[in-house]
TrEMBL record:
<keyword id="KW-0812">Transmembrane</keyword>
<feature type="compositionally biased region" description="Low complexity">
    <location>
        <begin position="19"/>
        <end position="31"/>
    </location>
</feature>
<feature type="region of interest" description="Disordered">
    <location>
        <begin position="127"/>
        <end position="154"/>
    </location>
</feature>
<keyword id="KW-0472">Membrane</keyword>
<feature type="region of interest" description="Disordered">
    <location>
        <begin position="1"/>
        <end position="31"/>
    </location>
</feature>
<feature type="transmembrane region" description="Helical">
    <location>
        <begin position="62"/>
        <end position="80"/>
    </location>
</feature>
<feature type="compositionally biased region" description="Pro residues">
    <location>
        <begin position="7"/>
        <end position="18"/>
    </location>
</feature>
<keyword id="KW-1133">Transmembrane helix</keyword>
<protein>
    <submittedName>
        <fullName>Uncharacterized protein DUF4352</fullName>
    </submittedName>
</protein>
<feature type="transmembrane region" description="Helical">
    <location>
        <begin position="87"/>
        <end position="109"/>
    </location>
</feature>
<keyword id="KW-0732">Signal</keyword>
<dbReference type="InterPro" id="IPR029050">
    <property type="entry name" value="Immunoprotect_excell_Ig-like"/>
</dbReference>
Amino acid sequence: MSYDPASVPPPPPAPSPYAAPAQPAGPAGAPPTGRVNGLGIAALAVGAVGLVVAFVPFIGALGGFLGFVGLVLGIIGLVLKGRKKGLAIAGTIVSGVALIASIVMIFVYTASYINAFNDAIESGPSVVDEAPPAEGEEEAEGIEPGGVGSRENPAPIGSTVSIEAITGAAWEVSLGAPTLNATDLVKAASEYNPDPAAGNQYAIVPATITNVGEANGSPFELTFEFVDADGRSYTGGYVSMEGQLADVDELLPGASATGNVVIEIPSAGAEAGTWAVAHIMGDPIYFAAQ
């Protein structure tokens, strides 16, 4: 048998002195390290905000919405593979609590407002500081306690009345001597003030208001109307004139302000009408026309 050098395989190449050393193999079967769960972080953040907002009146429903969003994000974060589950679990729990708290607080606030509203209706308007009768004038007879301020028995000009809001007495209001025909005064205040409609005239009544609530208040919380003898109501329109009550900014608790209320009223029988003052959510209190 002859020897064929070509049939002998070449020796393996020598290892390069510059080759990187082989890395030791890790333990068999070790699970991969989980990555940060971004959805879990988002669920926790959204749920925490929703939990705080759930206890804020008027916007508590927003807390419920945020809780629902956080709950969805947390559940998605739980089913993702290869992600850490701790934050997703915490976000799901916090968001669920926020959703439940929001629903509960909605029912609580609604019941409280309904009860307060019913109490305000039952309490009705009341006069807290009736002006004394003028010298030589007898005090009105036949007025039952609590009757002063109704349309049938309006409070006299100069009286101070308490205006009831849903949360209780919020304002004290007093009307000064009105000018039932103030058309010339209104027209002189600005050439742009429109003429009153046929058969109507402008009337001006000065009003002094005092904030007796516990928070800042605005005169826009009060409404002023003129009610004629037939029961038709007339509200103030916009005229350009200095010294109007509408120009007064917010009042701090205990602060007072005086300004004019301008209303276009019917000329016929103006003296037989009444002024009506009310909180935007309450019943009116009536003053005599003059």
